Amino acid sequence: MIRTLAAALATSTCLVALASPAAAQTQEFNIPADSLRSALDTFARQSGRQVVYRGDEIRGAKSPGVRGARTAEEALDVLLAGTGFAVRRDSSGAFAVVRVGNATIGADDDAASPKTDKELAAEIVVTGTRIAGVETASPTITIGRKEIDRTGYSSTAQLIESIPQNFGGVSFDARFSDNASLLQGSNLEGASSIDLRGLGAQSTLVLVNGQRRAPSLGGRAVDINSIPLTAVERVEIASGGRSAIYGADAVAGVVNFVLKRKFSGFQTDFLAGKAEHGAAEYQLSQTAGIDHKGGGFLINYTHSQQDPLDIADTPFNVSPSVVNSINRTLFIVPESNQDSVYFSGEKSLSPVAKIYADVLYSNRKAINKFDIEYNDYDYRATSSSVYRSTDLSVNAGLDISLSPVWNMTVSGLYDRRTTNYSSSDVLTGAGVGGTITSAGGDKNSSTLWGFTGTITGSLPTMFGIEPKLALGAEYRTESNVIELATLNRERDVASAFAELSLPLIGGEGRPFMRRLDLSLAGRIDNYSDAGSTANPQVGLIWEPGAGLTAKASYSTSFRAADLVTVAASRVNPPTLFIRSRLDPTSSTGSSLVLEKAGTDPNIGPETAKTWTASLEFKPRFAPWIKFFGSFTSVDYRNRIIIPLIGSDAELVLVRQNLFGNLINRNPGTAAIDALQASTVPARIRNLSGIPFNPATQQISQVFPGIVLVSNQLQNVALEQFEALDFGFDAASNLGRLAVNAGLNGTYILRHREQITGQSPSFSLLNELGKSPDFRFRANAGIGFSGARADVFVNHVRGYSNPLSTPVSWLSSWTTVDLSVSYEAPKADSRWLTGWRFSLNATNLFNTAPPQFLDGVSGIAFDSANANGLGRQLTLRISKRW
After folding, report:
1. b/e per residue 353-380 (b: at least 16 CB within 10 A)
2. Which residue would you say has higher pLDDT here, 382 or 689?
3. Before 643, cis peptide (omega within 30)?
4. Helices (H), 162-204
5. Position 830 confidence tier, pLDDT thresholds 50, 70, 90
6. Is there a contact between 747 and 632 (Cβ–Cβ < 8 Å)?
7. Looking at the DSSP assignment, which residues form a beta bridge with residue 590?
8. Residues 188, 186: Cα–Cα separation, whole Å
9. Which of 125, 240, 460, 708 would bridge 610 by S-S if both were Cys, CB 3.0 to 4.6 A apart?
10. What is the tens place of the pLDDT at every residue in 752-800?
């Protein structure tokens, strides 16, 4: 039939011919908005399919582009949407692009009609912009459904932890790190949060279908465990500041979980897995949906169950002779079960209007236990705690085509996260004078609701430039309640934003200037408790020649303190700790310090400036491979942190020059007495071993010469971050073999912190509990007739342990993952049709994490940068009905 098509097209016909794949497969497309000729040529290179078109007919036509994981047919439909052209296809896999309504071509009955601009807008708005068909100027990582299936992971947390740009510090076992942050240390509920660049989980904005989520962890960060991986279509990660587009919190970047919105039929998924030392898991998921021209719906139910992993059952339980305590029971993976329901539906009200709704509900129960003997203090502590978390999110809206080039969306969002906590604790032994029992509980709820209105479209063409514009306004209310601590807070945020895309030079430009796009964005946010902020964003995309693209962006960002921090700064008196710290100026080698903890009452918002630059190269002689590299720089001011954590706290007097006025070696009696009077006796913790009664005695009298250290949650002067990301993606067909390979790596050039404007900065890299400067993940795969094998290599560079004497080095950690799968081709025998089987091994060779024996938790590895799961085998079975 291809001969018939080519003959019918006759003169001025272009045939872009590459090796055709044997069967329709989903693959990643990244084709920017451009001339239709350029878009079709790029499509042919990326898909390996034949495309026939008449050059004179498509001259001057523009394509909106396409991005994401799609089949070649789906991608071409999107490329042609709104252009006035349609596609005809034959059994050989070749495509012919013709004008709509051209009856002289032998059209197949199943040829798809082009989609409307309204449908297109819903499909190809990418994270980092609000304008359909526009490419963001900042580095972006997209993980499609195909890539997710190849990993064999069962949860969103596992997927995010595998990304080198994410610092896996906020997870259940990371709370045992000797440099655990406030978020890490308080994570008893088994939450997992995203921490791009190691700038803090609160500095990464997490979206689901482009909408915000109510936070967990006391209202501080989003728990991604509530997002079922089975419902995820793709994950888009936009690096760098995005406050001009999305508002606060998008300092390190934005992670958008795009959930499935279209599905026809039924699909059942079952997963079972087990790690080397326990932590068995089971998962059952059912998806059903209907998709037709007037609308459709999808519903997904997922049940997950996780058995605990007790450190006492692993080789990583450190001897009591090392840490002066022994872990009889210590869960580093909690016992948990979760039920999630996701619904997405849309309905056309008319040819120009549709309504849609997304609903996500999750209910999770996590059980945490520990039983520890403290030899130094002669007592034993046991605890059992239960966390029950529910999350309900509803996003609904109306989408209206105002004209062929203008679209309006009005949407509302409601999200409520509630966590109930109960515990039972027992202390027994001579060190506590017998047996002490206690029971407690608390309830935390975070609520987010609001409305957004956006108008997007194209402005009149001027000087050959067709500008695209987005205008919008938002209003939202955030609230957080912690019942036991009576830390209740609410704020309102009103926002207005605008984004302008200017394609200055199109795909037929002059030499070294094939394409030049300029983007401008700005946003004003008014916080009822933190004032107003305005944040601009500028982006530039330059394509000097075919296959080479350079990008650059500049933006400012803003983050208000989370509600629980603001509430604590208003009501909580400080907590005072009396303890011993290493001190090289003391004749005994240590000195007593009075450490002031709590929250600074003068805490304020954070601000940041971000620069990014990137290069992408697709050789014309090898269109199946893409190389990429990017540079990111963040100048982060007024960071809200606890300055002294872990080794920094232990070595505070050793590194005194780094912490400026946080340390006062000669505070004087009056200052110590005033500080003691500012709190209550119950908030004074004596860890010195010297008898002291805070209700009847003065600290200044019992501990003369004590050093005063301020370690409240507070704004610090500056944090600077610079990193290079690099890698490649390659995919091709060698006959009937489909092969692919890739690499994603990051090298952190600089990550430094400066506590005050006068103190020197110090590095936050390559030290226990902090981020190593070099990570990568490489992959290679091969497929043949439905069978696939994929190998992944994960590498974390070694770093120092300052708690040992002398300072020691933790070696690098390299693990290998393997995934093998079989998916029956459609033409296979009936009993196998629709089945997919996969077997996955994470840490295939059971490589132990680098040994760390100097911590206080009794765990022989750095839980911020490694885990004790060992080899983990997972079997997944899927059936499409």
Report:
1. ebebbbbbbbebbbebbbbbbbeebebb
2. 382
3. no
4. 182-185
5. low
6. no
7. 582
8. 6
9. 240
10. 988 887 788 889 899 888 889 999 999 999 998 889 999 999 999 999 9
The span from the CA of 208 to the CA of 231, in Å, is 11
Beta bridge pairs of residue 406: 457
Of residues 824, 866, 869, the one with CA closest to residue 842 = 869
Among 344, 347, 317, smallest CA distance to 329 is for 317
* Vertex 468: Cα angle to 466 and 471 (nearest 5): 150
114: which 2 tokens? Answer: 């082009």
Asked if residues 444 and 419 have their Cβ atoms less than 8 Å apart, the reply is yes
pLDDT of residue 26: 66
Q: Token digits for 608?
A: 């940041």
> In this predicted structure, what is the pLDDT of residue 633?
95
Structure tokens at 111: 């040829």
Q: What are phi and psi of 879, to 5 degrees?
A: -135, 125
Cβ-based neighbours of 101, under 8 Å, separated by 6 or more: none
pLDDT in tens, 499-535: 999 998 875 556 788 889 999 999 999 999 888 999 9
Both tokens of 297, joined, read 């719906």
Q: Residue 181 has which token pair?
A: 């942050």
pLDDT tens digit sequence for 453-480: 999 998 988 877 889 999 999 999 999 8
- Residue 573 CB coordination number (10 Å): 11
* Cα 303-307-310 angle, rounded to 5 deg: 155
Higher pLDDT, 507 or 141: 141
pLDDT at 655: 84
Question: How many CA atoms does the CB half-sphere of 695 hold within 13 Å?
Answer: 1
Q: Give SS3 for 701.
A: helix
Q: How far is CA 507 from the centre of its chain?
A: 34
**If residue 181 lies in a helix (H) or strand (E), which one and from where to where?**
none
Contacts of 587 (CB under 8 A, 6+ apart): none
Instruction: Collapse the DSSP code of 201 into the 3-class scheme (helix H, G, I; strand E, B; otherwise coil) and give the result.
Output: helix
User: Is 319's pLDDT higher than 90?
Assistant: no
* Cα separation, 317 vs 314, whole angstroms: 6
Angle (nearest 5°) at CA 758 between 752 and 763: 15
Cα–Cα dist 6/28, whole Å: 28
Model confidence pTM above 0.90: no
Is beta strand 737-754 parallel, antiparallel or unpaired with respect to 85-89?
unpaired
Token pair in block for residue 858: 């009794």
Question: What SS3 class is residue 436?
Answer: strand
d(CA 122, CA 775): 35
d(CA 154, CA 148): 9
Q: Write down the pLDDT at residue 113.
A: 37
Look at residue 538 and give its three-state secondary structure.
strand
State how far the alpha carbon of 758 is from the alpha carbons of 322, 579, 665, 709, 714, in Å: 39, 27, 18, 17, 17
